[in-house]
Design goal:
single chain, alpha/beta, eight-stranded parallel β-sheet
């Protein structure tokens, strides 16, 4: 909740003023990954170990012997120290031979031009590399003359993270360490720079460990010059940011539905050790925060949102030791952990409710909401639950009804009772003390009830609507401010609320910079442009780009300078975004539209939330019958609407195949193997049948995949402060096919243009954008005077024009 000013902050680019710049070579000025990959692949084959780009990413900045040990983790054989030395030496010899293939074209012309420009501006330049091959690589690149000094592995005794190589480079430039800036792509290099007392710029797409975030970040080294002040020039003032700079504004969040992510023990259900096994995948993607759906002890009526013990891990998912290991592993990789907080209701198996039900005169009775029957003996009012049926269940023993806005197995807590708040806040403190980094708060806007009168009858005519009296109730802000004062203010945390019926103005109350409640609020107006909220179980799902623009522009403009947006296309309660708002008619269109949708939303002002599988453009399934559905919400809706005669079975299955949240809950496909590599057992839920074509392994191998585009998108956002903090301004407001907007921060502007249609459309850049630089394009290049089907472009311009 508090602003981050420590080294734990994942900081964005700031202006730097060194006299000398020391560059790492591989991964910064050139890329020899393909040679490393090929050399290590030969080694992996010899030792019969698996090897792919995810494993290769783990080897970046790691010594040859440490790299070998990582590969041998997957080998069935044992090797002596002498054999290991032979394997590592043979790898290096193979790598050296492959380097002969390098040419000057292996250095980006923009990077070469940047280096020349830095020299002309008066900077002293050096290469500081632990590799003995550095001089040979520079020779192959014809780049030796660009540097005043080259320090390589043959000149040092200790490799990174020891600072020797950078200290020698500074000495060779005739400068003090504090006058030098290091440009690095690996953690070991950054730690070496820190140990040597030097500032550091991180290059690339990955996340950095929390203990050593760089002073600034760029996706590509050619962007370095934009961060630097000429030697001797006064530093430019930082742009003023309403609400201040914080790590959670700059972060990208990845949501994991644990049951469906990866099964490590073969029981068919995803688990905590499965998440641990895939953390390198998340690190390669470049996300900063992992949000876990509930992992607490639960009977599982609503897949974990019915909690019976808030301080225990569900046995199916693992143990508290597994959780502790997961948390430590995330932090070691520079990622944070956000838990799901479900405190509008508990499970009916929670000890509080069991005691409340057993003893009407006991201390726990008032932990829940009990009411006498109506005069006719029926429920206290006409409210229907979110998941079908009445929102009240009768207890024969006491002669009273209890309230449950969801299933009867999820009784609502009575937040009017201060003891309930005491218990909730103490439980939150328990998890923060274990080291978690925040909470996503389930249906938090429902915790204060205004009254219990009959609600307006819903459109289906079956039940009254509880929302007018339960959403955004009279004491909700009082409760959240109390939560902030008693718990949140004591931690460097992130909070986001799931807020039913929230408007932009209400969001400024829940998450205003000066409100001391939450950091962000999820809004569902975007999810309702096709009736996904208000017309859930109908075939009326048409939508227009005009509605998307209207909703998002309203939220962007209203929250500007007052509160912070939470940006999401999908989650565990929504169908797959590419099936909903994209085009899955062909594989090419699926990929293009998925990239476009991510570009359009995630570069607005706010924190992006990626739901698992969206980064590989997973699609909706085609369910043929209700027996294939696990979700309680969908099953109850099917039964209730069938019984009322409001829909035919075939029509309802068509609606389910478009709208159901079941699509988000199918297991993650990791490969084309049996059951998508999700489990070695029988999966708890059938995978989407297209897993043989849409899976992680395929995405990692395809350089043009949606996954790799997401990596670039995340890196571009991280590298350009304007894409995080810049003000939003809609352009081309009346265009029926193109969503285009600007982001503005100080003298920097960004333009995002997205074609939501399947046909090419005319699109001329505004006059003051014709000379701008393209930093992201889902076609790989920029067209002339048009946007191609589902094309997305991101341009940037740095000039003297102020917003």
């Amino acid at each position: 909740m508090t602003s981050v000013a420590s080294g734990l902050s994942q900081r964005l680019a700031r202006r730097l003023a060194p006299r000398g710049i020391i560059f790492d070579l591989d991964g910064v000025l050139c890329f020899t990954d393909r040679f490393h990959y090929e050399a290590w692949l030969d080694c992996a084959r010899e030792v019969e170990a698996p090897f792919d780009w995810t494993i290769n990413d783990r080897l970046r900045g790691v010594s040859r012997m440490e790299s070998l040990e990582i590969i041998l983790e997957g080998s069935p054989h044992d090797y002596s120290d002498a054999e290991k030395e032979r394997l590592a030496t043979e790898k290096n010899e193979r790598y050296r031979a492959l380097l002969a293939q390098m040419t000057p074209e292996d250095m980006d012309p923009a990077a070469r031009a940047m280096l020349r420009g830095l020299r002309e501006a008066g900077f002293k330049l050096a290469v500081g590399s632990s590799s003995k091959n550095a001089p040979y690589i520079l020779e192959r690149l014809q780049a030796t003359d660009l540097f005043d000094a080259v320090i390589d592995g043959s000149q040092i005794e200790r490799s990174k993270p020891d600072p020797e190589v950078f200290l020698r480079a500074a000495d060779a430039l005739g400068l003090e360490p504090g006058e030098c800036l290091v440009v690095e792509d690996a953690v070991a290099g950054l730690e070496a720079a820190r140990a040597g007392g030097m500032a550091c710029v991180g290059v690339g797409r990955g996340a950095w460990p929390l203990h050593c975030a760089p002073d600034a970040r760029v996706e590509d080294v050619s962007e370095l010059a934009s961060l630097l002040e000429r030697p001797g020039s006064p530093a430019a003032p930082e742009a003023e940011i309403p609400g201040g700079r914080t790590w959670w504004k700059e972060a990208v969040v990845y949501q994991i539905y644990p049951r469906s992510f990866y099964d490590a023990n073969g029981d068919g259900i995803g688990d905590l050790r499965g998440i641990i096994a895939k953390l390198d995948y998340l690190s390669a993607l470049g996300v900063d925060v992992v949000w876990l759906n509930p992992i607490y002890r639960s009977p599982g009526v609503d897949n974990g949102y019915d909690i019976s013990d808030y301080r225990s891990i569900l046995d199916t998912f693992g143990t508290m030791d597994d959780f502790d290991e997961l948390l430590a592993a995330l932090h070691a990789r520079g990622m944070r952990l956000v838990m799901d907080l479900v405190v509008n209701h508990t499970s009916d198996q929670h000890p509080w409710f069991i005691a409340s039900k057993q003893n009407p005169a006991g201390e726990f009775r008032d932990f829940y909401i009990w009411r006498d029957p109506a005069p006719d003996g029926g429920a206290p009012n006409n409210w229907g639950s979110c998941f079908g049926g009445s929102a009240w269940t009768f207890d024969e023993a006491s002669g009273q009804y209890y309230l449950h806005l969801f299933t009867p197995e999820q009784p609502d807590l009575n937040w009017e009772n201060p003891r309930v708040r005491d218990e909730v806040f103490d439980m939150m403190d328990f998890w923060f003390k274990k080291g978690i980094d925040g909470f996503r708060m389930d249906v938090i806007s429902l915790i204060s009830k205004a009254g219990f009168e009959d609600g307006p009858v819903r459109a289906d005519g079956l039940w009254g609507d509880y929302e007018p009296q339960c959403a955004n109730g009279p004491r909700v802000h009082e409760y959240l401010h109390e939560m902030h004062e008693r718990v949140l203010t004591h931690y460097d945390d992130m909070t986001v609320g799931e807020n039913a019926a929230v408007t932009p103005e209400l969001a400024c109350l829940y998450a205003g910079f000066d409100r001391e409640e939450l950091d962000m609020a999820f809004q569902f107006e975007l999810m309702d442009v096709d009736g996904g909220e208000s017309r859930k179980w109908t075939r009326d799902w048409d939508w227009s780009l005009a509605d998307i623009k209207r909703v998002m522009t309203r939220w962007q403009e209203t929250l500007e300078g007052r509160a912070w947006n939470a940006l999401f296309w999908g989650n565990h309660d929504q169908p797959r975004v590419v099936s909903r708002f994209g085009d899955t008619s062909t594989d090419a269109r699926r990929k293009l539209s998925a990239k476009m949708l991510a570009t359009c939303l995630y570069l607005m002002q706010g924190t992006p939330y990626i739901f698992q599988g969206d980064e590989i453009a997973m699609t909706n399934c085609v369910f043929t019958g209700i027996d294939e559905i696990d979700d309680v919400h969908t099953r109850n809706a099917f039964a209730e609407l069938m019984e009322a005669g409001l829909v035919e079975p075939d029509e309802m299955m068509e609606i389910i195949n478009y709208r159901s949240r079941e699509h988000a809950r199918t297991p993650m496909p990791w490969s084309a193997e049996t059951n998508g590599g999700f489990t070695e057992g029988t999966p708890w839920h059938a995978l989407n049948p297209n897993y043989d074509k849409i899976n992680v392994e395929e995405s990692l191998a395809d350089a043009d995949s949606v996954f790799h585009y997401y990596r670039r998108l995340i890196a571009v956002r991280r590298a350009h402060e304007v894409l995080v903090y810049g003000r939003y301004r809609l352009i081309a407001s009346t265009d029926e096919h193109v969503y285009a907007y600007e982001r503005l921060l100080g003298g920097t502007r960004a333009l995002i243009a997205c074609n939501f249609g399947g046909e090419a459309v005319a699109f001329d850049l505004p006059e003051d954008w014709t000379g701008a630089r393209t930093i992201l394009a889902n076609y790989g290049n920029r067209g002339d005077g048009e946007l191609r089907p589902f094309e997305a472009l991101v341009l940037i311009c740095e000039d003297e024009r102020k917003e």
